[in-house]
Amino acid sequence: MTIKVFLGDLRYAHAGILANDCMPLGVAYMKAVMDRDNPEIDSRLFVYPDKLLAALKETPPDVLMLSNYVWNEALSLEFFRIARELNPNVITVMGGPNIPQESARQAAYLAARPELDIYVLGEADFLAARLVQALGDAGLSLKRFGATGFESIVYRNPEGQAIAGPVRPRHRHIEEIPSPWLTGIQDEFFDGRLAPMIETNRGCPFTCTFCVQGGSFYTKVHNFPIERMEEEIKYIARRIKEFSPKMGTLRIADSNYGMFERDIEISGYLGQTQRDYGWPTFIDATTGKNRPERIIKSVEQVSGALALYQAVQSLDEDVLRKVKRETIKLDAYKALEVHMRGRGLRSISDLILGLPGESLQTHLKALTTLLDGNIDQMHNFQAMMLKGSEMERLDSREQFGFDTRFRALPKNFGTIDNRRVFDVEEIIVATDTLPFEDYLTCRKWHLVSSVFWNDGWFLPVVQFARAHGVTNSQWWLAMLPALEAGGPAVREFLDSFVGETIGELFPTREACVDFYSKDENFEALGRGDIGDNLMYRYRAIASFHLWSEVCATAMGATRKLLEEAGVAAKIPDFDLFWRDFHTFIELSHATGRTEAEVLAPAEALLHYDFAAWIDSGDMADPAAFRLSRPHLFAFELTDEGAREMQSSLATYTTHIRGLSKLVTRIRLDSQVRRCRELGPSGEEGLLLAASAGEAGWQAGALDKGHQIANPVHIPER
C-alpha cells in the first residue's frame, strides 16, 4: 500500500523574518533515501509552517515526521497536536539531537507528550525509511508496532509504557545517501529566502561536554565523496544564479571545516564558483580546531568569504579539562594567528560564558589574551544547556552547581492556526565559580566587544594607539568606562542593554511562555522591542541608529588614553588632526535609518590624506600626509558593496528586527565607505565646510542632548 509521509524541518517566519534561513538538509537526506528505496512511500518535504498547515488540512498524511532542534521543538510539537486533531490516526514521529542523553529521561520525554508517538534516536538518514516500512508492515497500527519494537527509537509498548531502546551505531558509508541536491529535492527551496547548506563530512573527533557531537556516538568522521561535493557545489551555484541571485550565503554544516586535507580541494571548488558565478560571497562555517596549515590554505581559496573560526570557548586549563577539551591544541590557535596576520585574513574566536570552572577573572583574561593576539572578532556566547550533551545531564548539573534560566529564542515564535507558539532555551547564568553579578559584568564586556571591536569599525584608531604603546586590551578596557561616563544616548544604550539582559531571563520555561503569550508582550516581541538577540540587536542599533554617538565615545576614550601617554603633545596640531581623524572614521561607516541614508555618499573637508596614511602601514605619525591646504574628500560605498548592502536591506528590511540579522550576514567591507580625494576646495567652500565641520564635531564629540530613537522598555511582569 502507498503510505503518505510528510517530512518537515520547520522554522518560524513571523512578520516575514525567518528565524532560520538554511535550506533543509537532514530531512532532505531522509526523503532522498525514501524516494530511492521505498517507491510505495509518497513523501513531501516542508520548511514553512503555513505550507505544512495547508497541506495537513487538505490532504493529511499517514505519518508526520518532524525535526527537533533547540530552535523548533515547540513548533514541531504544535504541528503534531494540529495533525492529531485533523486526523486522529496520524502517526507522529520526531527526531533530532534535542533530547536528553539518559535513557530514563528519553522515555520520560515521550511519556509527557501524548501528541508524540515515536522519537528517533541517532541518525535517521536510512532509519526513517525502515521505520515507515515497519509501520506499514504493522498496518499503521501503533499497538502492533509497539509489540515488536524497533531499533534506535523511543516508543510505547501495547500497555502504553514509554520505552527507550538501544541506539544503533552510525552508518559509516554516508556516500550511500543520495544527494538531495543532485536529485532535485532541494530545487523548490531556491526561493531567495533560504541559504543552501552542505555537509562535506559528518562527525567530530573532539569530546566537548557542552556539545551534542562531543559524545562517543559522533567520534568517527565519515566523508562524502570529493567528486560528489564538486558536483553539488556547481549545481547549487547554477541554481543560485538563476533562481536566487541575491542570496550570497553558503553554510557548511561540518564541525571542523578546513582541518582535513580534502577541505583544501573543496574550498578550491568554491573559489571557482566565485569566479564563474559570483557566489558565495559569505561562507558560514566552523573551522577546525587543529591543523592550522590546512585551515589557512582552505581559507585562502575563497577570496575572503570564509573567516577563520577559532572556537577556543575558554583559555583556562582547568575549564578546558572540565569540559573535556584538552585534546585541542591552544598552540594551534597561536600559529593560525601568525599566518593569518601575514596574509591579511580575518580571524574569529568563540568564548562561552558559564562553563564549569569559569569565573569573571578567567573570562576577562581570555578576552584580553585574544585581543592582544590581534583577533579580529570575538563571539561571546552564554552556555546553553543543550539536550543531548553531557553537560546537560542531571549529574553534571549537580556537580558544577549550574544555576539556569530560560529565555525566548530570538525570532523563534509565531502564531500557528490562531495559537501562539514559542521556542525557549535554557542558559547558565551562575555556577559555583561565577555569581550572577559577575555574569552581568561579563555581558557588558561582551557588548563592548560586539560594538567597539568585532567589525573593525575603529581599526585605524586602534592601530594608531598601538603605534604609540597602547595595547589592544588597554584600548578595549577603556570603552566600558567611556560608555558608563558618556552622554545620555550612550548611557541609555548601555542601561537598556543591561535591563534587557536581566529582563529576558525567567525561572522556568512555563513562566517565559506565559509572559510572552500576553497580548502586549507578544506585540512587543513581534516589533522586536523585546526578546531579540541582544548582542546583534544592540550592534545593529550602534551601527545604524546611534553611530555618531558611538563613534564619539570611542574617539573620546582613545584621545584620553593618548593624552595620558603624552602622545597628544608630540603630534603637531593634534586638535586639528584628531578632529579630522574623527570625521574620517565617522564618515567611513555607512549608517542611517532608511535605505537611501545607508547608501548615500558623504563629503568632508580634511587636512590629511587619511586613506593614504593608513595604506602606508606606518600609523605612528600622520605628519607626512598633512596636506598643504584642505582638500574635499568623498566617502562612498564601492559598487559591489552598494549592491550587497541593497540586496541585504531588501532581504532583511531596515527594521531593527531585520537589521539584527543583517549585521551577521553581510561582508564587513560592504558597509565601508571608501575615501576618495576630490581636490582642493575654494575659499568659500572652505569656510562653509569648516563651519559645518566645527558644528558637527562639537555635537558629536561632546555627545550632549542625544537620545536613542525607539528606546527599549521592558514590560513589567
How would you characterize this protein structure?
44% of the residues lie in helices and 16% in strands. With 717 residues, it is an alpha/beta fold. It has 3 domains: 3-164, Rossmann fold (3-Layer(aba) Sandwich); 195-434, Aldolase class I (TIM Barrel); 454-717, no CATH class. Strands 2-1-3-4-5-6-7 form a 7-stranded mixed beta sheet, with helices on both faces. It has a 3-stranded parallel beta sheet with strand order 8-11-12, covered by helices on one side. Strands 13-14-15 form a 3-stranded parallel beta sheet.
Brief descriptors of the model:
717 residues; alpha/beta; Rossmann fold; seven-stranded mixed sheet; three-stranded parallel sheet; 44% helix
Q: How are the SSEs placed, and which strands pair?
A:
Blueprint: E1 3-8, H1 26-37, E2 41-46, H2 49-58, E3 63-67, H3 73-86, E4 91-95, H4 103-111, E5 118-120, H5 127-137, H6 142-148, E6 153-156, E7 162-164, E8 197-198, E9 201-202, E10 222-223, H7 226-243, E11 249-252, H8 261-277, E12 282-284, H9 292-300, E13 308-313, H10 317-322, H11 330-343, E14 347-353, H12 360-372, E15 377-382, H13 394-400, E16 403-416, E17 419-430, H14 436-453, H15 459-467, H16 472-477, H17 479-484, H18 488-503, H19 509-517, H20 519-527, H21 534-545, H22 547-564, H23 574-587, H24 595-599, E18 602-608, H25 610-616, E19 626-637, H26 639-652, H27 656-662, E20 673-680, H28 683-702
Parallel strand pairs: 1-2, 1-3, 3-4, 4-5, 8-11, 11-12, 13-14, 14-15
Antiparallel strand pairs: 5-6, 6-7, 9-10, 16-17, 18-19, 19-20
Helix pairs in contact: 7-8, 8-9, 9-11, 14-18, 14-21, 21-22, 21-27, 22-23, 26-27
